[in-house]
Amino acid sequence: MVLGSYLDLGKEAGGQIRLDLRLQDATAGETIASVSQTGTEAQLFDLVSRTGDQLRQKLGVGEVSPVEAVGVRVSLPSDPETIRLYSEGLAKLRVFDSLAARDLMQKAVVKDPHFALAHSALAEAWSKVGYDSKAKDGAKKAFDLAEGLSRQDRLLIEGRYREVTSDWAKAVEVYTTLFALFPDHVDYGLRLASAQGSIKPNEAIATLERLRRLPPPAGNDPRIDLLESSMWTGVDFKKAVALAAKAVEKGASLHSQLVVARGYSVLCGDLGYVGRSNEAYSACESAREAYASAGDRSGLAEA
């Protein structure tokens, strides 16, 4: 395991930050190696790069090639504030807070109009809140800006572009490649399953089963339950309801009102589909309460 921490040394030290990492044997609990580097906030990416180089040496991994280094540099803006906005926007997308994600990503692309990953994530946020035209424009802009980025970033940007343009076959192809390169990345697996669900539901369910076999917390991600529940809607009522209920339970344990709200929304639809009106009404009311508690006006209106 790689563990780490950072310390802001303060203005007295010239705005420097110290980054400490240690490599630990997870079985024995012993520290195998430690790495420490200091740099200013303005040199944050150089600091991370130097620390990464040292860590790769400790692991016996080869150096980053010049081409790979250029790809990483191009992928990220030099302004830490832009990275903060982008990172917080991604976190909002993962818990279904699309409105907050949209606002954060808009600020990120204003600060750096050439930040392809932020344009791509903004396109996803626009799509989630129903602005398909803006989503397509943003995804195309990101796609056009992707030249020179790492292969991972190019695939992610192309996958989003194919999604918002409903080119599901190409989206499945792109996400299959991305998930094969990073088989422990939950987000990539979910993207693949979602795209497969539009044309190959059986393959989507198989992909979700692969995600469930990942070690926790990845394999316990409630988004897996929510997506699989949608696959069984109209096909197997019991499975759909059980998975949505499981997502509600996990969302509550994670104190994520938006996950809870999304789970209840799925339950509302499933129960209404089979004519269980009273239970459906109760689930819809619970969804409305959860959306209201989370301050999600869009979700509240939908519920």
Describe this structure in words.
The protein has 303 residues and is mainly alpha-helical. It folds into 4 domains: 2-63; 77-165, Tetratricopeptide repeat domain (Serine Threonine Protein Phosphatase 5, Tetratricopeptide repeat); 167-220, no CATH class; 229-303. The chain is 68% helix and 10% strand. It is built from 15 helices and 3 strands. It has helices at residues 44-59, 66-75, 80-94, 98-111, 116-128, 132-145, 151-164, 168-181, 186-199, 201-212, 222-232, 237-253, 257-273, 277-294, 297-302; strands spanning 2-10, 16-25, 30-40. It has a 3-stranded antiparallel beta sheet, covered by helices on one side. Helix 4 (98-111) runs antiparallel to helix 5 and helix 12 packs antiparallel against helix 13 (257-273). It is globular. The mean pLDDT is 91.
